[in-house]
# Entry
Amino acid sequence: MNKKICAWATTPEYIKYHDSEWGKPLHDDRELFEMLILEGMQAGLSWITILNKREHMRKVFDNFDAVKISKYTPAKIEKLLLDPGIIRNRLKLNSMITNAKAYLKIQKEYGTFDKFIWQFTGGKQIVNHFTDMREIPAKTAVSDTMSKTLLANGFKFVGSTICYAFMQATGMVNDHMTWCPQHKKSKKR
# Structure
């Protein structure tokens, strides 16, 4: 690697994700829903596991179509539990259905999930100015509030740490190191 980027981007998969997605403001409802589900799926696992399974999960989870997922049956969950290409955790799969239903209610109430979720940062990206990875928090007061609000609205697997990771992934917060070329670029998406 000849360029200096955030220290966690150490594999080709991580570098691609770092350079093309992580920290760039995301406003597409379906993609926001996908990232919320994937962050919940990641709990207790490495993010590389999620990246390696993401394309297959998109396929078997109907491209994270919340309407379709909200209608998944217990029989569908049993079938999914046999698929080694996904995260085979019954609680996480059931929470995906619960979250799809909660997401659809939020969309109906707010018009878009984007409008609802970005309210936690006042509709703007929080730009941090970290120079060392050890400075990045696991959670913040904002992620605490987001977590409590999502839980109150029926979501599952949305603890404060998961919410902060979601905020980083979707560009609600820019935690690229100030010396990383993506620090400036992530604000422009």
